[in-house]
Design brief:
Order of helices and strands: HHHHHHHHHHHHHHHHHH
Structural class: mainly alpha
Largest sheet: none
Number of strands: 0
Distance between the termini: 83 Å
Shape: elongated
Radius of gyration: 26 Å
Number of helices: 18
Helix content: over 70%
């Protein structure tokens, strides 16, 4: 029996050693260290992996990431140069390279990387988003063209909506800041960026959209038929906010807007955001949605009171929201330059 027990222990130990040396297991170990921000241990394990497979793209990308987060930019850029021109370089390769050159404050090389990445992956929303951010940091406001292109070709990616909405909030625009901003909130509802966007939306309704009684004022040169249709339909409801923009008044305005839009414009300009509004109206959850969107920004105490007074509606919407993923399908792009 003792001999059998010894043999069992021996084989168990042997299999454990083999498992530790298994590349997949070792890579998981390296990424575990990365998740803990233990860059030195991650680098140690990745070095062992690269000794056995020096051309593995994933190992090399992770190594660059480790040096980047460790702020060893000299080694990070050495790694970038090894992978960015490879035939199998993927979108993330170019994103990592861009981050490294940004950290090195080398916008020229960074721009070259993004241009090469977009040439190879012309439908990558993340690359348009990050390239636009680089240009915007240089005060090159053609960044908006990149974000718009990213929205057009990769509508399921949220970053371009976020960047474009922020850009438009600080211009005279009265349409796209609201459309893109609300789309982004639904894509990234739980993040800090999503919470910040809610504040901008509520502020925008007060300070931009309904600042003038006539929403069409100054829109004579607007080239987007969709934008004009949006403003014309919203303009019919401007009297509802004559006593102030509140969560309650916005709920009323937006309810009447959707009802009107689906009578006049929905067939010509289908939009996932408005389809979602209509769905919520049908299911009796649109008020709860508007409370979630604006109530927490306007007055958190009043929002808490509303949720307690409308507990079934609040629970119903919260449960529904957890079951869905908001994505804009291709072909719903109506911006005009």
């Amino acid at each position: 029996m003792k001999k059998l027990a010894f043999l069992f222990s021996f084989f168990a130990l042997s299999f454990a050693v083999i498992a530790q040396d298994d590349p997949k297991t070792m890579h998981q170990t390296a990424r575990g260290f990365m998740a803990q921000a233990d860059w030195d241990n991650a680098i140690l394990v990745l070095n062992r992996l690269l000794e056995t497979d020096k051309n593995n793209l994933e190992y090399n990308k992770d190594m660059v990431q480790c040096y980047y987060f460790k702020r060893d930019y000299e080694k990070a850029v050495e790694g970038v140069k090894k992978i960015v021109n490879r035939d199998d370089a993927d979108v993330m390769t170019f994103q990592i390279a861009g981050n490294v050159y940004k950290a090195l404050e080398d916008p020229k090389e960074c721009e070259k990387v993004y241009k090469a990445g977009i040439k190879k992956f012309p439908k990558s929303g993340p690359l348009y988003s990050e390239y636009g951010e680089l240009l915007f940091q240089k005060k090159d406001y053609s960044a908006i063209d990149l974000w718009e292109k990213g929205i057009e070709i990769d509508p399921a990616f949220g970053g371009n909506y976020y960047n474009a909405a922020l850009y438009y909030f600080y211009t005279k625009d009265k349409v796209w800041s609201f459309i893109y901003g609300e789309i982004f909130v639904n894509m990234e509802s739980l993040s800090q960026r999503g919470a910040a966007m809610k504040e901008l939306l509520f502020k925008g309704y007060k300070e931009k959209l309904f600042k003038e009684a006539d929403l069409m004022k100054g829109e004579e040169n607007n080239k987007s038929p969709f934008a004009k249709a949006f403003l014309q339909t919203m303009n019919k409801q401007s009297s509802q906010v004559a006593k102030g923009v509140t969560t309650a008044s916005l709920t009323m305005v937006r309810t009447r807007f959707i009802l009107d839009w689906y009578e006049t414009n929905a067939a010509k300009y289908p939009l996932r955001l408005f389809d979602y509004h209509q769905q919520l109206l049908r299911e009796g959850m649109f008020e709860a949605y508007n409370q979630w969107l604006f109530g927490t920004v306007e007055n958190l105490t009043a929002y808490d009171s509303w949720t307690k007074a409308h507990l079934d509606e609040y629970k119903g919407f919260t449960a529904f929201q957890k079951t869905r993923v908001f994505r804009v399908p291709p072909g719903q792009y109506y911006q005009s330059k």
